[in-house]
Amino acid sequence: MIHSNLRVEVLGNTIMVAMRGTCFRAKYRKQEAPWLATDEYGPDDPDATVTFSEFRNLAWTAANDRARQLGWVINCDDLHRDSKTRPFAFAGGASQR
Questions:
Q1: Is it the case that residue 93 has pLDDT exceeding 80?
Q2: What predicted TM-score, i.e. pTM, was given to this entire model?
Q3: What is the residue extent of each domain of the chain?
Q4: 28-80 pLDDT, tens digit each
Q5: SS3 for the chain, per residue?
Q6: Other CB atoms within 10 Å distance of the CB of residue 93
Q7: Which residue from 41, 45, 74 is spatially nearest to 60, judged by alpha carbons?
Q8: CB proximity list for 20: less than 8 A, separation 6 or greater
Q9: Which end of the chain is flanked by fewer CB atoms within 10 Å, N or C?
Q10: Distance CA 89, CA 1 (A)
């Protein structure tokens, strides 16, 4: 029920999430890494039916779902599989498996 109260919009490389009927807002952006970066969270809303912490959790899930649909991020299983096929580069430039 609460998830349907979220509005998710994509603007360029940014995903904005808002909860209808509250002041809650969240902004995430695409980055070079295969996961989203959090840009900002909006104000707390003491009159909301969910806590700010619950909203952040819902917003993060909704933003990641949309980012996966857009091909911006990959799920953990794919990330682990991909990391096993590529050598890990250390700071000195040497690769090691």
A1: no
A2: 0.74
A3: 3-96
A4: 999 988 889 999 998 989 999 999 999 999 999 999 999 999 989 876 676 66
A5: CCHHHEEEEEECCEEEEEECCCCCEEEEECCCCCCCEEEEECCCCCCCCCCHHHHHHHHHHHHHHHHHHHCCCCCHHHHHHHHHHCCEECCCCCEEC
A6: 6
A7: 41
A8: 5, 6, 7
A9: N
A10: 44
